[in-house]
Amino acid sequence: MGEERKEEEELVVPPLNFGMVDNGILRSGFPDSANFSFLQSLGLRSVLYLCPEPYPEANSEFLKDNGIQLFQFGIEMCKEPFVNIPEETIRQALKVILDGRNHPVLIHCKRGKHRTGCLVGCLRKLQRWCLSSVFDEYQRHAAAKARVSDQRFVELFDISSLKNLPFSFSSTIYSSNR
Amino acid sequence: MGEERKEEEELVVPPLNFGMVDNGILRSGFPDSANFSFLQSLGLRSVLYLCPEPYPEANSEFLKDNGIQLFQFGIEMCKEPFVNIPEETIRQALKVILDGRNHPVLIHCKRGKHRTGCLVGCLRKLQRWCLSSVFDEYQRHAAAKARVSDQRFVELFDISSLKNLPFSFSSTIYSSNR
After folding, report:
1. Does residue B53 fall inside a structural domain?
2. Residue A142: inside a domain, yes or no?
3. Is B109 a catalytic residue?
4. C or N: which end of chain B has fewer Cβ atoms within 10 Å?
5. B28-51 average pLDDT score
6. What CATH number does residue B67 fall under?
7. CA distance, residue A84 to nearest chain B CA (Å)
């Protein structure tokens, strides 16, 4: 019984909608205190938070205690058909993600579906993924909440100004294309 | 026009249902020749194939040309309620995945939903993920085809004989729990 109890205590709780995007780049919904020990195990260097609301105190404290830097790019969430994803904000956020000094980085918004999905979609375009694969991944994380408007945003997003950035993904994955 | 054409040719096509499981561990549906240049960019060392059918010639050739080792663990696919996932086969497959010398390894079956989903689910149990997070991930990849029987298999799968394996994931991710 004591042994069983110990086993239970050892379980980790990844945040909802958690996934690996690439080496050193992770995504999820909003983490709460139940997720902290899992997040600790990731050895994060930074968190990229995509909502305009202030970061909750418990989360801020967790970041501070673990020496994790917070980058906040507040994107207002409008319900369809009033969608307004700011291109320039996504561009700035991409620069943070692409900088290996920030890895491992966890990208999150509220549910890890729309704002995070758009940002990851734009990253995939930079990685030269074809759009059907980009949308396949977007839909996997957005499920029943998938939005055509988000996918159109990703499709029309202009990567030309980012193409000459020095990529520094932490691994050889995809690197033969760079 | 010529420039645009060149851009198009540079696109890569990840296999359907492609995702990163952990550092050096990838998953997908069945890759076809359209995916080969993407797979090449991953620098794979091995492929773990979970269907009993012989590997298609074009795929075998691709692996041979790129020095990629094939591990095949044929699991018959039965429709519910006749489900029979062999525990021992999953155990052997897990040993291949956990061996860092095989990384990067791509796990795939036909759709990347059931067989691949069960195997990844068992891996998550070894990583001490709580079941709700394991199922969240399983369902993301299985979508409308999610099976309760697969999830029950993962829940009942006994990891005790694997706990003492020397893990050798390629990164620090999750390593603080080991």
Report:
1. yes
2. no
3. yes
4. N
5. 96
6. 3.90.190.10
7. 27
